[in-house]
Amino acid sequence: MNRKEKVYNILQILSENINLKDLKNGNCGFDATEIGEKLNILRNNVSKELNILVSENRVIKIMGKPVHYIDKRRIEKILGKKLNRNITKLESIDLLLKSDYNSDDKEIEENSDIFEHIIGANQSMEVPIKQAKAAILYPSGGMHTLLIGPTGVGKTMFAEMMYKYAVQIGKVKPKAQFIVFNCAKYAENPQLILSQLFGHVKGAFTGADQDKPGLLEKADGGILLLDEVHRLSPESQEMLFYFMDKNVYRRLGETENMRSADVLLIAATTEDADSVLLKTFLRRIPMVIKIPTLSDRPLTERYRLIKQFFGDQVKCMNVPIKVYKDVIKALLLYDCTGNIGQLKADIQLMCARGFLEYKTYHKKVVEIDTPLVPENVYHGLLNSRDKREELEDLLDIDNKEYYKFTQNNSRDLISMDEYDVSDEIYKEINNKYYFYDHQGCSETEINRKMNEIIEKYLRRLIKKIDIQGKISDENKIFKIVSPRVYNAVEMALDIAERKLKKHYSKNVTIALSMHISSLIERISEGKVAYNENLNEIAVNHPDEYDTAKLVKRLLEDKLDIEIPEEEIGFIAIFLYAIDSENSNKKIGVIVLAHGKHTASSIADVVNSLLDTDDCKSIDMPLDEKVDSILTKAIEMVKKINQGKGVLILVDMGSLVSFEGIIKKETNIDVRAVETISTPVVLEAVRKCMIPEMTLKQLVEDLKYSTPYMGRSLSNLLKDNRKTRIIITTCVTGEGTAVKLADLLKNNLPAITAYNIVIKPMNIYNVNNIEIDEEENIIAVVGSVDLKIPDVPYIPINEILIGNGFMDINNIIEGGNIYHRMELENDIQIPNLTVKMIENSLNFLNPVKAYNAISSSYSKLIKLLEVKDRDDFKTAFMLHSCCMVERALKKEPLSYDNIDESIRNAPMLYKNIKESLKIVEETFGMEIPDTEIGYIMDLIDTHFDDTH
């Protein structure tokens, strides 16, 4: 991309956020200095490119000191009409709103260039458009054209735009047709193709019982698109090139009569034209236009396509759509092999899933977040490192948290920042403080939690200014924060430093300045609201609380405002939570794993999700020597150490030995932990962002997150004697048993390490258990005890709310089930139940599904007058969540003799049916009787007499 287009791209992005209200308030666009800072290009060079863009009628220039520029298309979209071509320079932006600067709508429509509506008209599509115009404008009937490009690039759409352009300039009459013929549809029947193209006379072939005109006749005076032209037979191609030569043809079966037609042919193919089409045919098509693939087009064009497709879906659904930033990132970066067609289809799929949730949960908007993203699209987040700079140009200019499309302006992205309202930080501090206090957390732990919240708030504030590497640029800061506010906060923090014997970084000054600026605005609008307990939290830190009072008084005096008393509490928390000695220093994290891309792939995902680059990686190809890897690790530890040490996450126990060698070599505190998975690395990097986190504390925290860390390498030796088996069971079909098997595999590394085989079974095939002599059943897990002698049974509720995981691990490693490892166990029933079902649900939100079905369960227990049992609840929840989705998809389970089962237990059926009304009303559907039959069986299994 050349410099001019880079300048134009940035101006387009900046102009996206201007609306009619801004124009009326005198928003004059953007000057060359501001644009140059975004691109690190000298102001003079930017100004030169902007003036070229003005001469090309793409940018409007607003005279003044300094001169400002606005993307012309954005202004036209705001005003709802095109501007005259002579509008390129204006004395004032107010003139844009005056009617005499706007063309008559009818005149505009007649004079506008239809190709301007194509995304990329001045970039990747510039050459194809010039070629298309040349083909249409060619004397006489135009120039026959061949469009080449892979599936999905938009060849049919481009051909249609050529037709509309021909109509617009008068080369084709408005009544003339644009006809599309897919040659592949009849490729196996050449005679039928000839009939479709040229028509036939009665008796030309069997079944031709009357004359029929062909497409050439219907398209007379217009344009005929031959899609997938490479599927034409040689005979068909020969007849067509004769037609292109002479403009005459015969219907199939005609021998004397010669017909004429004036038709411009546009052919399209995904293949190499030279290898699939006759040379004589190609010679009659002098204009060949190559349509670029999506990967060949700049990221800015894909960005506009994404916006357009979401806007189209808003119009279809007539409901606003909120799209989260990571979704936009994934769509921008994934390998979209099907080009524009696939991009549109993937967005439609996400919107369909989001719309189902919108209807199911009665939302106000359709939300598109990462759980709704197809796996192939989600992989795009792994590519963020490759295109980080270009991605930042597109997405990070305004720090958008999510994008909202509305019916009123469905093609524009509205920047939304959920952290703009400072009141939210007060609520969060208050709520989290009392939550942790009631959980019995120590004061130190609570301080750490509060610090996390403040740090998160600070990062959101800091990111509002593009100050990476340029924090001393006060001109940039003062575009966001008033110099008066900034100087007052700087003076206040100077007093705080001396009183508390701390040093606060410039980041902290900027963040608190932005907070105070927001506070002043909210005070003026009467929108200040605090929780009365905010100060109670802060008084636990008397030194900071007293200092906060001084800060408040100084700010009131310097800014001539009255700050609410409750703000003292927030300032105090700010002062004790943000310690510059820690806030700018983090524990280093390195992922070290065997394989060409294992470590870097995990690091890319973690960095993308946390919007950071703190997670480093070293890939270890199997053919690379250990000494070479160790050297890389030593150098990286030296490079990333900030004084708080480095955590190394390794995938094999032998690599733990790197810890001692690196410590000795570098004299840096290094800890190696043997566990690698995306969730574990994600947790490690997240906790490294906490200023008060120490390396020792981090390692301890990760041990509780992964209780099987630190196994010696010898424990990983597989038992090569009998194959050991764990059977998972259920009463409602094998579905739940299969999901339970997946849960065990995903949460117990020992299952893979010891080559344990898991066999899912249901109640109906229990009697058909076939165990080979070489197999050894070591445990039965689930909702049915198979009562196998000397084989322990672990109920499903022990997995979800008890010590089931530790029991199974001890059985596998040879421990005693009654001597459990004494580890902290904070598992809650909703967490693991939801975790177990979420991979099997395509549409439903697992947490919300759990809540609805949990209410249904509570009602059922009351109606049955039975005691609440954990084992029954977990089995009921797991079955019912999948049952709801099956019912929504109209794919219910079958059940033999359901009518007889209902007649034998009418009250049980009635109670279940009554309890499920909550679910049916929530999801707007009806549970079929066959599904209720399985719930009846479930109840019979757990309770003696419920009929």
Describe the structure.
Residues 586-725 form the PTS EIIA type-4 domain. Residues 118-352 form the Sigma-54 factor interaction domain. This is Sigma-54-dependent transcriptional regulator. Helix 19 packs antiparallel against helix 20 (443-462) and helix 31 runs antiparallel to helix 32. The longest helix is centred in the middle third of the chain and has 22 residues, at 339-360. The chain is α/β, with parallel strands linked by helices. It folds into seven domains: 3-112, Arc Repressor Mutant, subunit A (Orthogonal Bundle), CATH 1.10.10.10; 126-290, Rossmann fold, CATH 3.40.50; 299-416, no CATH class; 423-582, Orthogonal Bundle (PTS-regulatory domain, PRD); 585-708, Phosphotransferase system, mannose-type IIA component (Rossmann fold, 3-Layer(aba) Sandwich), CATH 3.40.50.510; 714-827, Rossmann fold (3-Layer(aba) Sandwich), CATH 3.40.50; 831-942, PTS-regulatory domain, PRD (Orthogonal Bundle). A hairpin with a 5-residue loop joins strand 2 (59-62) and strand 3 (68-71). The chain contains 43 helices and 25 strands. Strands 6-9-12-5-13 form a five-stranded parallel sheet. Strands 1-3-2-4 form a four-stranded mixed sheet. Residues 99-111, 410-423, 464-473, 706-721 and 815-831 have low confidence and may be disordered. The termini are far apart. The chain is globular, with a radius of gyration of 35 Å.
